[in-house]
Structure formats: C-alpha cells, structure tokens
Write a structure and sequence with these properties.
By secondary structure, the protein is α/β, with parallel strands linked by helices. It has one domain. It is built from 9 helices and 7 strands, in the order αβαβαβββαβααααβα. Helix 2 links the parallel strand 1 and strand 2.
C-alpha cells in the first residue's frame, strides 16, 4: 500500500513538472538571426513593445550569429542546451522557433534549401529577398521593383531623414500604429503577388516578416 502511494505521488510530481515545462516552453520563443545587429535589435524592441500591450507575455531568446542561410538553419540545435529529459520524451525548450535570414548574394539553391530545411525541422523561416531592409521600406511605400541592396539604404535615408546605421534601434525609429499596419499590408500584398512562384529565390522583392508579426499578435491577443 505504501509503495503504491509513493508511486502515485511521484507520478503526480512528474506530471506537474512536465506541465510546468510545457507551459514555460509555450511562453518562450527562440529567434536565430543571420544578421548580428540589425535584426536582433529590431526584434528585441518589437517583443518588448508587444509585451507592454498585453497581460500575457512572450519570453524570447534572440541570437544574431552571422552565419549564412543553410549554416544558420543547421546551427539552431546549438541553442537546445537547456532541453529537458522527462521520462522518454526530449522536450525542445521553445514554443516556437524562428530562423531569420536574407537572400542577399547567396545562390538560389542555398536560399531555397534553407527555407525547405527549416520547415522540415519544424522551424518557422522568416526570410527577405533581397534583404531585411525591405521590411523597413515597406513601412513607407509598396515597393514592387527588385532593387540592389545599397538602394534600400538610400531610400530609407530619404524617409528617415538621417543616415542609415545598421546598429540603430529601427523598431523605435519606424514604429507607429499607422506605419506598422502599412508595412504588414504592403508585405502581405507582395507575398500574394508571388503566390504561384515555387522558387523562394525568385520571389523578389518579397518578405514574410509579417508572419512573425501575426504570430505575436495571435499569441498575445493584440492588434498592432
């Protein structure tokens, strides 16, 4: 009888621990960014702002690791060091995992393979073709022509009325209720225009950063 009670108590304790881990996992998101400064700075500010709008919070771990597309996706497991073993289940300690990268000058095959690999592994790829600054520019205009990277910078300088610096907190510079909604609208419209194109590398200019914005909105039950 005593052994049965002890067994039941341990089972309940395991279930409570597992429930706690699952809850913490759901509330913690991992973002692994190709860029070392621009993207991490932007998303740090974005999550801080989003959490300020809701009683519910998202804990996030954001890393900028300076690796290219395929290497970036394959390196995500490096951040699983806090995975917890419960009975026979290994729990990845993140509710959602995003890998964030640009097309830039990488080969079409590298870019496409990175997206397919991310999806296969259960990650959410957030990509921009050709660069992340496209998302910034969409706060102001519905860009339709695929332009060189340096032109993104010069156009942003016109709208921001200041030199473009990758280290800046661009979320703070760009954010307003109006501007963010414009960016989401422009981004989704571009994405829809390339809906029939099978190759991600040929979707240009195009980005799906709006997917991450909507994931945040849905989880926190807010509207930017």
């Amino acid at each position: 009888m005593g052994g049965d009670c002890l067994h039941d108590k341990r089972k309940r304790e395991r279930e409570l621990r597992k429930s706690k881990v699952l809850k913490e996992r759901a509330e913690t998101w991992l973002l692994v960014c190709e860029g070392g400064k621009t993207e991490p700075n932007y998303f740090e500010s974005l999550f801080k702002y989003a959490n300020s709008l809701s009683d519910k919070k998202i804990k996030c771990k954001i890393f900028g690791i300076g690796k290219n597309t395929q290497s970036l996706v394959n390196s995500v497991e490096d951040f699983f060091s806090c995975a917890i073993q419960l009975e026979n289940d290994v729990l990845i300690p993140y509710g959602k995992i995003f890998v964030i990268f640009d097309k830039d000058s990488f080969k079409k095959e590298q870019f496409n393979n990175a997206i397919h690999t991310a999806i296969k592994k259960g990650y959410i790829p957030i990509w921009s073709n050709e660069c992340f600054e496209l998302w910034f520019l969409l706060h102001f205009i519905p860009l339709k022509s695929n332009i060189p990277r340096n032109q993104y910078f010069s156009k942003l300088e016109e709208f921001l009325k200041r030199d473009y610096q990758k280290n800046d907190d661009h979320f703070q510079l760009l954010n307003s209720e109006k501007n963010l909604r414009i960016a989401i609208k422009n981004s989704k419209k571009l994405f829809e225009e390339f809906e029939s194109e099978k190759s991600y590398a040929k979707k240009a200019p195009c980005t799906n950063v709006h997917d991450l914005i909507e994931e945040i909105e849905n989880y926190l039950c807010i509207k930017f």
